[in-house]
Design brief:
This is BTB domain-containing protein. The protein has about 500 residues and is an alpha+beta fold. About 45% of the residues lie in helices and about 5% in strands. The strands form 2 sheets. Strands 3, 4, 5, 6 and 7 form a 5-stranded mixed beta sheet that branches. Strands 1-2 form a two-stranded antiparallel sheet. The longest helix has 26 residues.
Amino acid sequence: MVSYPDSAHGGDANSRTLALRQAPSVASSRASHSGSTVRRHRGHRSHFGGSSYAPQNEFPVFTHTGDVEIVVKAERGGKEQRYLLHRLILAQCSGFFEAGTSEEWSRAQGDGNPNGGSTLARIPEQSGSGGGGSQGKKRWRYELDWGQGDDDIPMLVQKDPNTSLFGGSTTVAPPPARNKPSTPSTGFFRSMANFSALNLPSSSDNQEPVDETLRDYDNLFRVFYNYPPALDPINIANAYVECKTLLHLADMYDALDVIGPRVDHHLLRFQGRLFKQIAKYPPSYLKLGYLARSKVIFSEALTHVVGQWPAGLPQLRNQTPAAVLELIEDKVDELEELKQRIEGKLFRLTLTTSRGERVNPGNAWLDWLAMSLFRQWVAENTTPPPAPILKSAPTNGGHSRSGSRQPQQATPAAINTGQIFRLLGTGGSAYLPRDELKRFLKSTPGLSYDRDTVRRFERSVEELKHLAKDCVKPLMRNFLELDLGREGGGGLPYLTCTKVEERDFPWDE
């Protein structure tokens, strides 16, 4: 007596599916065994390499459920990548796909096409496909168009989907054979097999040069499906370039809200190396931080840009939104106002006598000389030098009356007051050292130069330095993530006291 599996049990669906995948010889030989034997050995039998091929339904080709085909072809070499993805996920992640696959766009395309519906097609119902009897599902097809000239930006455009992965003349090539067969059982082992089958980057894949366009589009779609992008995890310079091109691509397809956090997460993994790179190239990372909506990178770069302003203006003009430039100018104005208030306090610093009176030439001549020297040093280092006076004014476009060409008056270079304030915040022998004090005393007429005079003069100057150090403390604050060391300045010749508040980020407006 031959026993058959009970059709009322829930395991029949798996039995029927398994039977379809088996070779005829295997199916006939197993028919002579009992149902219990079939169920006991089903999970341990491998059918890899059989005559039948089951299409994949995973990234990047969802054969059973995908409804948007995307073909990305390199400009040179003929290499291309094909994707069969879901309209729902693409529309949620990208405003470009949301508009391109909308009903309004479909009606507009249908009205402009006399044939009606050449842009959109419907997937016919296939028996045994598990579609549940759905009568025709819309499908879309996009191809990368490189344009006509070198200045054209490659862009995805909609094409006729009749000849595509959906069943036309273009067929899907089976995936390459795996080293190990995947188990047909469901559950944890099946999930791990699917995970290992993903097209993740490996060391062997890096042997051939990767086309940047193919890489960027692949990273874009990988992030859409919550897979980590293939970005350089070691070389931060390469990672910056890859993140920059990916962000520009996401900006084209209105997907910065999805791509930005991934780029931010990847770059922040470099930690200290990232902040050193930002200090080297603040304008570049300011633009990248704006595109990625990264508060850490944007505020770090903005602090450097404001401290060095206007050095970064040529790299930011006409390359960043007006809101970013307005924010920079506002922060620069705030910093200048603070510096002016500090300068006024420095010039008002004074010493007092033992009776509590302000020093003057009548009650403390040596202390008054110390105050004069200190104020003179501050004035010389915080005020631009006066323009030179030309002996003969040029006429006729820079030519003198004799006809010879006269040199044009050079514009005095701007003084880096940030470095001066850092010296004041450091104090000690950072400025006005002992040798300079001695030279000043020697050149002062009517003053007896001896050891006691030098000692008293040094004490007065040192007292002024302590007062100045307390005065410039608001400018010595550091709002960088970069470790500047114990000195607080870390060798930076500009101020880093600019703080970016939550309300300052321009993308929250």
